[in-house]
């Protein structure tokens, strides 16, 4: 069996992102984090590769934000 499972529960994703399961559910429902529903009760699963792609997108968005909003020292205490 692989060291990293292919699919993660929303709780697993929340642990990786250090956030709540509710926040991960919101990301999934808004379509920001691709996921699938499985089983009769429709449990959500996120593919590990999709989570890594999401994390990379967030890094890219943060870099764009930093580029567009240069640090001027005014907000140093934030």
Number of alpha- plus pi-helical segments: 3
Q: How do the strands of the widest beta sheet line up side by side?
A: 1-3-2
**Biggest sheet overview:** 3 strands, antiparallel
Mass-distribution shape: elongated
Q: Which strand-content bin applies to the residues?
A: 5-15%
In whole angstroms, the N-to-C terminal distance is 44 Å
SSE succession: EHHEEH
- Mean pLDDT over the residues: 93
How many individual β-strands? Answer: 3
Low-confidence stretches: none
Overall helicity: 40-55%
- Rg measurement, Å: 16 Å
**Oligomeric form of this entry?**
single chain
Helical/strand content category: alpha+beta
Please provide a written account of the structure:
This protein is α+β, with helices and mostly antiparallel strands and 78 residues long. It is 49% helix and 13% strand. The protein contains three helices and three strands. It has helices at 10-17, 21-29, 48-68, and strands at residues 7-8, 36-38, 43-47. Strands 1-3-2 form a three-stranded antiparallel β-sheet. Strand 2 and strand 3 (43-47) form a beta hairpin. Helix 1 (10-17) crosses helix 2. The N and C termini lie far apart (44 Å). The model has no long low-confidence stretch (mean pLDDT 93).
């Amino acid at each position: 069996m692989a060291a990293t499972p292919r699919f993660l529960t929303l709780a697993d994703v929340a642990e990786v992102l250090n956030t709540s399961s509710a926040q991960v559910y919101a990301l999934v429902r808004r379509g920001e984090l691709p996921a699938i529903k499985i089983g009769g009760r429709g449990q959500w699963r996120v593919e590990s590769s999709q989570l890594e792609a999401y994390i990379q997108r967030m890094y890219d968005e943060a870099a764009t934000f930093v580029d567009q909003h240069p640090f001027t020292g005014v907000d140093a205490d934030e």
